[in-house]
Design brief:
6-stranded mixed sheet; binds zinc ion
Length: 275
Amino acid sequence: MSFQLGQIAPGIWSGSFSSFPAGVAVHGLSGRLGGVSDAPYASLDLALHVGDVPSAVIENRQRYLAALGLDASRLVTPEQVHGETSARVTAAEAGRGALAYADSIAATDALITDEEDLPLLLCFADCTPILFLDPVRRAVGIAHGGWKGTVRRIAAKTVQRMQQDFGSRLEDILVGIGPAIGPCCYEVGSEVVDRFRAAFPGHDEELFTEPQAGSVHLNLWAANRIQLEELGIPHAHIDCAAVCTACNHAIFYSYRADGGRTGRMAAVIALKKQS
Ligand SMILES: [Zn+2]
């Protein structure tokens, strides 16, 4: 298992998990290079809700999805609200949020589908993208794990939704935890520490580090892995990029390292047509 980052088209960088079988689904985690947006969104901003010029974002989406071999006019994207709600989408939702933010799937932080050729897209700048692929039942999903979604176990809840809606089995589901702010950079306050300690008792060692007195750093990658393993996803099925977006904000967007006003990278996944 590994996470690989490389150019998928001239100037356009994207990451992927080697554990996800390319014959079943196309997926990618975008970088910030190779787009048309100007500062502070430069340059491959894929979000329509952060103040960037909409035509630039739509051009960026077309470039990135074309580089993945996908049709940007069919993408489905939600209005992310740091909640724990998932939505199952079908061909009827194709294009929701592709051209206008107001048209996105309302108040939803995870999407799942068993529809072929229906790209799911969620936006991130430091929050944790969690991608799901069930190659047996042929279903995919993406969840948005900021600290609020993570402490509410959105990753585990998305898997449970795949079990209910698609009959997915825990032993079949593959998970990829994408680039996000890492334990090296993610300093949190005592309120957040208390919430995670209550939600994940006995995991202090994996979750918290104290690089200096009075400063606690949280490991969101670990918190997402822990909840998935507690649910019963095999350890070997969870691939973690372990790439920090703040350390690498020349390549990825980072809300913290970029000072709040910045663009968004995307996690994208789409089931391939069965040949
Ligand atoms: Zn870092």
